[in-house]
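Researcher: Here's the sequence for the chain we discussed earlier.
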Amino acid sequence: MSSSAQPDKEVPRPKGSPRPVDYDKRLKEVLAEVKAADRAGEPQSFDLSTILHPEMLAEMKLLGQKAPPKSKKSMQEVVYPFPSIILTSAPRGDGNGEQDFEKGDFKSTTIFWEDDPGHFNTLAITAADPAKGITRGDIEREIQAFKGGRMCDQFAGYGDEHNDLLRAERDLCGRYRLVYGDRPE
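Model: Thanks. This is the structure I predict for it:
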C-alpha cells in the first residue's frame, strides 16, 4: 500500500491543549440562538474590569508586579445567567446597529482615528456549564484567547494609548457592547 493510500492520522496534541475554535461558526450559531430567544431577566450591564490584556499580564510579571487579585469565587461568579452571549468591541452609536454582532472582525464605516477606520471584533461565548450560565472566568478565558486578547483593551485613537475593558452593556437580547475607559484606581 502506498503512503498516499493510508488514512490521515490525527496529529497528537499536548495534553490539555485546546482544540482550535471556529469563532465564525460559533458566532453564527449563537447569533441564530439569541435572535430567536426571549431571555427575561438579562442584566443591563456587568463588570469586566478585572480582565487584563495577556501582554499587560506578561509585562507586569517581568516588572515583578502582581496582577490584581482574582479569587476562585469571583471567576466562578455567574455574570450572565444564560448559556451563550455575544460581545462586540464596537461602541454604541457607531451607525451599524445590529450588524455589529454579525461579523467577528470588521472595520467601522463611521469611526475613524486620523485616516484609519476603527477596527472592531465580535465574539460569541458559550458557558462551560450551560445550566449555570456564563461566568466571569468563561469570559476571561475566551476574550484573552481570541485574537491575542485584542478585545481586552481598545485603541484610544492617538499614539499607542489604549483604554481598559470596564464592563459589558446590554444592547439586544444576548448581545452586549463592551465599554472601555480608564480603569478605576
